[in-house]
């Protein structure tokens, strides 16, 4: 992602967008949130997941999200 694009991306919108897309693939990241400690960086915290969820996420990425 280009720097200019990053500057205009709201991390809360990005988090909700990612959460919705993951939900469509049947995946929940329980620790998904916005990193409020570094607001200038606009970071989305993906958090930790169980191993089975990590495998589901990898499978979804490989299939283009089409489970």
Tell me briefly what this model is.
With 67 residues, the chain is mainly α.
Features:
single chain, 67 residues, mainly alpha, two-stranded antiparallel sheet, 3 helices, 46% helix
Could you explain how this protein is built, in words?
The protein is mainly alpha-helical and 67 residues long. Helices cover 46% and strands 6% of the residues. It is built from three helices and two strands, in the order ααββα. The chain has helices at residues 3-7, 11-24, 51-62, and strands at 33-34, 44-45. Strands 1-2 form a two-stranded antiparallel sheet.
What share of the residues lie within helices? 40-55%
- The unreliable regions are none
How many strand segments? 2
Strand content: 5-15%
Count of helical regions: 3
Radius of gyration using CA atoms only:
13 Å
- Secondary-structure element sequence? HHEEH
N-to-C terminal Cα separation, in Å? Answer: 26 Å
Determine the structural class based on helices, strands and strand pairing. mainly alpha
Major beta sheet summary: 2 strands, antiparallel
Q: Please give the order of strands in the largest beta sheet.
A: 1-2
Shape: globular
């Amino acid at each position: 992602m280009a720097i200019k694009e990053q500057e205009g991306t709201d991390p809360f919108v990005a988090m909700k967008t990612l959460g919705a897309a993951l939900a469509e693939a049947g995946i929940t990241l329980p620790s998904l949130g916005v990193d409020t400690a570094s607001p200038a960086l606009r970071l989305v915290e993906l958090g930790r997941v169980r191993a089975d969820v990590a495998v589901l996420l990898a499978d979804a990425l490989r299939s283009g999200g089409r489970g």
